[in-house]
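request received
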Amino acid sequence: MTPDLFADQPIDATTEILSEGGVVLRQFATAQGPDLLSEIEQITAAAPLRHMKTPGGHSMSVAMSCCGSWGWVTDARGYRYQAEDPCCGALWPAMPSAFTNLARSAAFAAGYSEFTPDSCLINRYEPGAKMGLHQDKNERDLSQPIVSVSLGLSQVFQFGGLTRSERPKNIPLGHGDVVVWGGPSRLRYHGVLTLKAGAHPLTGASRYNLTFRCAC
Ligand code: SIN
Ligand code: FE2
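response:
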């Protein structure tokens, strides 16, 4: 899959180019916020949000769950995708069609046709939670982009380079903003700064992030 950023899509005020292959689609998912949150509620009733441990034994500040054919997990054995939720051995909940459609249409708007995610990581940040700079590189097919949807409180997203030492851009992401990165940007370092306390009408004191990927 090749990024075809400028081909068919009008670049309007709601699209911000971050890099070759990386864009922010401002408010792309805002109208679907209530539906997406009710899907998150159903998924996390079956596969509860939990603070996973890094391979080094640290508890992550962000609470995570997954849906789709493959869920991303971390524990003492390392980072990986697996079909079962380690908490109970059941398959992860299916990816709701509202999720798949949103991820596909955001990828398309960013110039990536035919994105079909098989994995969605659900991150919930509460005040004090953050995610350090990292690359998403546990996926088998790096020709597919990443689609990352923000819901609820605003949080500063960091979008860096292909090396950890490159200074990242700080990009505040609000409710409904979607970031898509792929092609030459697929392995860019990224993370989020510490969430500040606040109140959002749909999510209260939290921010959710949905990360869609082709894992396997
Ligand atoms: C991630 O990289 O998994 C999360 C990024 C975000 O929360 O915006
Ligand atoms: Fe990531």
